[in-house]
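User: Assemble these into one structure.

Assistant: Restating your components, then the assembled model:
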Amino acid sequence: MIAIDYTQLLRLALPEVIVVATALIVMAADLMVLRRCNTRVRFAVAAGLASLGCAGAIVRILLAPEVDSILDGMLIVNPLTHLVQIALLVLTIFTLLFSVDSTFTEHVGEFVLLLLVATAGMMFLVGTQDLLVLFISLELLSLSLYILVAFNKRSAQSWEAALKYYLFGGMSAAFLLFGFSLLYGLSNSTNLTQIAAAIHGPALNPLLVIAIGATAIGLGFKVAAVPFHFWAPDVYQCAPAPSAAFIASGSKIASFFIFFQVMALGFAGAEGTAVLPHLVRGWIPVLALMAASSMLLGNLVAIRQTSLRRLLAYSAIAHAGYMLLAIVAHSEQSLAALLYYVVTYALATLGAFGVIAVVEQQKGGDQLSNFDGLGRQAPVLSFCLAIFILSLAGIPPLAGFFGKFYLFVTVLASSPGSMGLLWLVILAIAMSAISLYYYLRVLKRVYVAAPAAGSGEMRSPILSQILLLLLAASVLLLGCAPQLLLRWILAAIRVSGL
Amino acid sequence: MLAWTIYISFLGAAGLLLLPRGSVAAARLLALLTAVAGFGITLTYFLHHQTGGMLTITRMPWVPSLGIEYHLAADGISLTLLLLTGIIAIAGILFSWDIDFRTKEFFAFYLLLIGAVYGVFLSYDLFLFFVFYELVIIPKYFLIAIWGSTRREYGAMKLALYSFVGSAMVLIGLIAAYVVAGAKSTSLLNLAQFPFSLHFQMMAFPLVFVGFAILAGMWPFHTWAPTGHVAAPTAASMLLAGVVMKLGAYGCLRVAMTLFPLGLGPWGFHVLGLGSWRDVFALLAVIGIVYGALVALVQKDFKFVIGYSSVSHMGFILLGLMTLNQLGLSGAVLQMFSHGILAGLLFAVVGRMVYARTHTRDLAKLGVMNLNKAIPFAAVTFVIAGMASMGLPGFSGFVAELMILIGVWRAYPLLAVCVGFGIVVGVVYIWRAMQKAFFAEAGVDSTPPNPPLPPISFPERLGAMILIGASVLIGLYPQVLLNIIVPALNSPLFEGLRKGSWQ
Amino acid sequence: MIAFPWITLLTAIPIVGALVLLVLGGRNKNLARWSALAFSFAALMLTLILWRHFDPASGSLQFQERHAWISPLGVEYHVGIDGLGLLMVLLSSIVVPIGMLASWQIEERVHLYYSLILILQTCLFGTFTALNFFHWFIFWELSLIPAFFLIRLWGGPRRASAATQFLVYTMVGSITLLLTFIAIFLATKKFDFIDLAALAQNGQLMTSVVDKLAWHRFTPEHVALILFAGAFLGFAVKVPIFPFHTWLPSAYCEAPTGTTILLTGAMSKMGVYGFLRILLPIFGAQMQIVLTPLLWMAVATVVLSAYAALAQKDLKRIFAYSSINHLGYCLLGIFAIMKFTGGDTTLIAEKYAAMNGVFLQMFNHGLTAATLFWFVAMLEKRSGDLRGLDDFGGLRKVAPVFTGLMGITLFSTLGLPGLNGFIGEFLIFKGSFPLVTWATSLAVLGLLVTAIFVLGIIQRVFSGPLNQRWISLPDLTTGERLALAPTIGLMFAIGLYPQLILGVINSTVIQMVNHLKF
């Protein structure tokens, strides 16, 4: 029986506890006190309270820097997890604030509760190296997300998307669990490092091969990589804006971080290589293949889209491909690159969804034609949208460009002789070049096309404008002075190890 | 101090965006003042520093974890091109004085473009270089897509994508070089000194060179240029053909040839008579010269003639780069300046003076309008610009092309003959365009068009004078620029090039 | 004297005048005309000052100016004049005012017309004084532009093709010339005419060519001949020599007569000047190798153009062919001088004579042809642009002074002793006969045929029954008489006292001939 020191556990998990507690408080407040107020007030109060709670969690994380690990890696705390958790909380705050103006539901308390619970799930997810805790947190996150997607009861498509998400997600969770069980069988432990030590050997055990495949399926689904991406376009298009934004931003960060951890830590020793022409069997070639197909499919299909949300979905698939490259490289530097990339990507995507939310409210849909002439009707909104889109496209001096640059550098630097993974980098850069086409088409609509006849002035809520400007500023700032974030990430990795 | 050329341009762009909507006159004035300020700074610096060697302006760490620095410096070559940018910027704004549709946004994008171009010419850190290089693409796209003419959205997208693909190729090469050199520093000087393996250089050089050469309009990657330039509004075409194409050539010289000089060496075997990348690119350049000239000869659209003429003249620059002797290289840099000015002038006449008034660019339709009587200033300006463009002595084009020709004769005698042929065709197509557009009905008994065309305004005259003056000055006294270009070519940065394949 | 940049000043005066005219604008036509005339007179005054201060005893270059310009290309600003240059500059200064006066009746865009003429004058001065290929070529090329536009914008009905033909022919020649000189630069690193002539004299030019320009299948002699051909073509088109002359008749005919004066009076001399200044000193050896074909070309030029003139009906065309004919004599003289006499100096006096004759012929023909075309212009003004041979008849009855003066000029063309036309042709024949007897004998045919068509003109236009159309043809006005007086006077003066010119040019002639290899 392992002795559990509950005070230590509480101390280490205090941030998560704060978040959960906030969730319950918000729920209570909404159900009991605010029943009669209108939706907007309720949302405002709920989001405000929730944001305070998250802010409190952030403060707690910053004030108590510790490096600790209990229960054999079930809950670990180190600067790296701090960093990721802070990022998640910040994104949640933004999502909450964006949702203030939403009109898609009256179940405010439930909505905010689910958001916060999902956040808590993500925080647990990044703070563990144990398979079971990993799975539970993942499920906590996923289940909350399924419901969040379905939240718009008036839209049948929202329902449909949620159902697809749920079915898909459930199946991949099953695969993940299957893989985990095989790993346990091979190593008699649920701790990642111990598993790695156990499976290390000259030849690949066939069971291990299956385990790799199953894990890849499960986690690949989460990050929307090809060929497990089918849920993404529908979910991105039909979920309510805050939910979609949340899935696109925060959940991405957590999923990629844990993907890296599981592969690099857990399967260390079974990598194989993707260095052509000497392919060695392992999880790397699998991931390399997933990455390549994601980049190809995401970018090529995005070209045909007429809905901005769907375009962002396919773009998310493409970006997932790029980020998988960092996992293929599995070095400290590539982890830093991955974190930098995914954080700045999340900021940009969140901002894009924020703009979409406003436009949808005013113009009734997210078709590209609704964005015609936005540059003249809502200059601030368009400016922010341009920043986000260009960052996604990788145009300097925005954060997206530095992210890509750093990512490709670390991918190349990780392979022996420095040229092994060149084919992947070339593919990534080529696909990135293609992506400019569809991103620029969006901006063309915004700035070049004339506004549709009969559409008058656009009134965007002040809160959204402020938030968008903050996000745009951060994207620009992180692009011009990447050292700000990079220093933090590199220091955290140095202390925490991989 | 030179860094302020960049900052002032960006500040000007930001300031323009903050102006209230509809303030057309204020927008024009602010833009002009910004451009003049930028040029003034460059000119002052030029007059004080006549050495041509590299002078660092700013150098501070940017992303120390990766060895990226914010390093701005200028040598003779950069200075020449900075002067060119300044002159074209002023002239472009003068020629856009009549734009009244979304004026402040036009000038904002324009100044953003100028600032980014200044940045490219001043960057000595490869990451910084690339940032500015990419930054050029977006304002370029919008300038064409919003204010352009024929097929502007298609032209703008084609231009943007080609440029982006080119820069993607460059990025691959740069990342590879950076990683192979240990991922310690992106400084141009450091990487230029790093001894990359011969095999690596043989692979990286063509990749990076072609990446830049796409923007420079090298055949067969030139097809974006005529479409894009024709679609663009006048000031944008002036800037694009005059300066932005030179970014590509500058990149070829400053980055590709200094980082990977061994890539120019012989392969050891011959394919179709070509024995090295140098032979290949020299041949492609010459094909560009002749092809551009021949195609310009058969165009029916006036602006397309000039567009293809730009492709032809850029071929001269690339050929000069491939001669690898001092005369050819300095001629190439001089041609960058000269063609920049002349392309600006030609597009100004065709776009602003003729098209904005007659609303047609069809040579046959223009012919009956008797333009030499209606807008004589435009006719005279085009004659002068055309003469200069075809290499008439007394103008900048002659000296530059002469130097390149002599340089080519030393390196590739056979190609020099083809170049001569290209020059002859160059004379013919300019002459044909000039005849058909301005002088088709000329004579004592011809009549001016009815209703009369608006006269050439003062800003247009001023712009034309500035450009003609610059061309004549350099044509008669090229030492002004050669004094700083030649020492720059002898600087340590080009050491590898000199040791490798110099002649 | 040497410190002050006389030549640069002289070259600059016309172009400053052109700019002034352009600024003044086209509203006041008379102001434009008189200002232009004033500038050309200023140039003439300056030329006469130079003539006065020129030292006839020395045959070398005077008033030299030399400054470094583009060092990497070996280009310097080097100008200077010797007897030849001075003579040509004087000719240009005289011909340009004549051309301006003959264009007085132009009404369209007067300021532009006259400024183009002034630009042309600058180019002429520049070509005749430049001693470094770079700026010599600049002026050579730039002269095409005003000439083209003068023909294109103010010319006759078929001006478009005439102007284009003129341009294309001359441009092609210029390009071959440029290529030749680039090749020479590659071989010797020099662009300076004097230096290159010195190299050619002591045989170093050939050695450099061998060293630097050895192309696989060509022997050095062949390479040198190719270079010579390139340079030759440039000048052959300009003079012109048969068979490169086909552009000339239409160009002269379609150009407004004032421009024709400039073309025949000054621009054609650029070609001959090129032969003397460039081809002879630098490519002397090559000329000797191909001397016989060259002589045939000269003879063909002389004889065939005379016959062609005989067949024409348009006065301007007749005089155009006559121009070709007269310059043919110059070429005959030049080629005769190049004849290799085995180091024997017995015939050197003949060579001196021939060279003197060439110089004189250039000047005299310029003067005479200019005046002839001037008369045609006056005739056109009176007849409403008619100038056919058969349009007139018996004009001496209504315009005796006109007939008289034009008759004098025609006789000068014919080569009547006592007028300037005789001296040049006489000296050329005297010098060439012992050197290239067969060619000279054949060339005499040209003289004969010239006589025939000149007399034909006099008979058809001036004598015979009066054509009733012209019964009220006005004679020369006082202004015209005053303007013509100096030129007619000069024709007599040179005809009776050629020492006026010979005194100045003789030393230069002797020095030039002595430098050539025999």
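Residues 326-358 of chain B form the longest helix (33 residues).
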